[in-house]
Amino acid sequence: MLKRVCFSFAISGMCGLIVYMLMEFVGEVLLGAENFSGLTPEYMTYFPSETLALGTAVLFHGLIGAAFCAATVVYEKAELGFVLQNVIYFIVTGAVWIPVVSFVWQLYRYPAAFFSTLGGFVMTYIIMSVVGYNITKKEVAQINALLAEEN
What is the pTM of this model? Predict the structure, then answer.
């Protein structure tokens, strides 16, 4: 599990870095905006340099990925049931990503952005739950079919 969490941290951090680089490329090169940054000016005031602000943001993205990976341990506890597993996963991951994203993107300053971000994550949770439910339902049907054949 620790290996998976570390790998998720690295992948999420790398994806965050790539997104920030793409944002800067589009902003500065394609749109011609001078000194464009994907980071909010309010966030950057917490750091002595833009490099430290970006590095910290990338680490925060890694933390989110690690939390999402680590929280999957709840799905190994079959006795909890699928609905309870999803609720616990939502609470645990939300306890990490909501404050991190709110701080990095300064969402508490921009209510429309906060609610849009929250809505996007909730939709992701819903999609993940529906897909997971359908996969589990098919697996249970296959197991029941095998058991019926044995009897």
Answer: 0.82
